[in-house]
């Protein structure tokens, strides 16, 4: 590390945003091929970041405003003497970190902090899709080519789940404080039943906190398999590679699933705008209703049937 250029990348979360930063991570790694690159992130994403191979070092941010934690972070930032920082979080918090370098010297900084050397100055940045916004930010810092997010480097072992035959992933969870982003559990249960009648095992993904809702779906469709709390991010990638399709709410796991190449149907309500944040890809379909209560399971079934027909024709 001695004598190497030191680069810091800041990306704190959440999962969907982290997945959409994988392309920029790769671009930064390629642009600074000989540099020592550190990622500052939060604990949930450290293992995924290590597995990617894009970083030489991972630091976990406490995201605390306690004075002793801020002073410790300031000391680390200044001691490490980063030559350049790519702030891909571009939040009020991450921009605050720029000012921890007062009274200098300041590193080169790509982000939105006032006074930084490579500001993303587009006044319309907040109405750009995340992928476009990050690519433009990096172009303004001299990185011209930013690939799409990719997880081909992931090497998960999913044999532990014992899945046999055809299966589909259902990501029926979501943020507890934003219930309007979730398709009703009874609609997921109806869809699970339809999948089962097609000879496809519904596999339910979610956290332990979401296990009650997933078990309710499994109770309505006994052939469904709940993996609530049993999967990490790399497991989700492996499961997506083997799945016939995936259907889910606007949640982080659907970003991982789509990037893994699984045919995906992502459900949006008026609570979030797919033009700003939806997964992209030739095998991704977005269904949006003002309220997800208005989306019938038959609507999703028709989309899936069309996707399968298109695949068989091609």
Concise description?
With 314 residues, the chain is of the alpha/beta class. The chain has twelve helices and twelve strands. The protein folds into two domains: 6-140, Glycogen Phosphorylase B (Rossmann fold); 159-313, Rossmann fold.
CATH class of the largest domain: Alpha Beta
Helix fraction by DSSP (H/I, runs of at least 4): 25-40%
State the CATH topology of the largest domain.
Rossmann fold
- Quickly count the helices: 12
What do these coordinates show?
This protein is of the alpha/beta class and 314 residues long. The strands form 2 sheets. The chain has a 6-stranded parallel sheet, with helices on both faces. It has a 6-stranded parallel sheet with strand order 9-8-7-10-11-12, with helices on both faces. It folds into 2 domains: 6-140, Rossmann fold (3-Layer(aba) Sandwich); 159-313, 3-Layer(aba) Sandwich (Rossmann fold), CATH 3.40.50. Helices cover 37% and strands 16% of the residues. It is built from 12 helices and 12 strands. The chain is elongated. The chain has helices at residues 15-20, 22-31, 46-52, 67-80, 92-98, 130-140, 185-197, 211-220, 233-242, 252-259, 274-277, 297-313, and strands spanning 6-10, 36-41, 57-60, 84-87, 108-111, 118-119, 167-171, 201-205, 225-226, 246-249, 264-268, 284-288.
């Amino acid at each position: 590390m001695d004598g190497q250029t030191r680069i810091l990348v800041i990306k704190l979360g959440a999962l969907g945003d982290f997945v959409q930063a994988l392309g920029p991570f790769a671009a930064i790694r390629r642009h600074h091929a000989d540099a020592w690159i550190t990622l500052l992130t939060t604990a949930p994403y450290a293992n995924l970041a290590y597995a990617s191979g894009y970083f030489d070092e991972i630091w976990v941010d406490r995201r605390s405003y306690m004075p002793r934690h801020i002073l410790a972070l300031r000391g680390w930032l200044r001691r490490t003497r980063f030559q350049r920082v790519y702030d891909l979080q571009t939040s009020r918090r991450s921009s605050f970190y720029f000012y921890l370098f007062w009274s200098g010297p300041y590193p080169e900084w790509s982000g939105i902090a006032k006074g930084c050397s490579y500001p993303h100055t587009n006044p319309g940045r907040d109405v750009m899709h995340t992928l476009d916004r990050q690519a433009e930010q990096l172009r303004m810092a001299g990185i011209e080519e930013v690939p799409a997010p990719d997880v081909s480097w992931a090497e998960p072992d999913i044999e532990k789940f014992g899945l046999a035959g055809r299966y589909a992933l259902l990501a029926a969870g979501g943020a507890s404080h934003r219930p309007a982003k979730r398709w009703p559990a009874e609609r997921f249960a109806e869809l699970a039943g339809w999948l089962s009648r097609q000879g496809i095992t519904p596999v339910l993904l979610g956290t332990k906190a979401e296990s009650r809702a997933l078990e309710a779906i499994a109770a309505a469709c006994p052939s469904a398999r709940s993996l609530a709390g049993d999967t990490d991010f790399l497991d989700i990638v492996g499961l997506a590679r083997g799945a016939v399709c995936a259907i889910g709410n606007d949640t982080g796991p659907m970003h991982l699933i789509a990037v893994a190449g699984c045919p995906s149907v992502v459900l949006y309500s008026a609570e979030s705008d797919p033009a700003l944040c939806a997964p992209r890809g030739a095998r991704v379909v977005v269904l949006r209703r003002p309220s997800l209560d208005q989306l019938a399971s038959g609507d999703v079934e028709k989309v899936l049937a069309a996707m399968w027909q298109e695949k068989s024709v091609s």
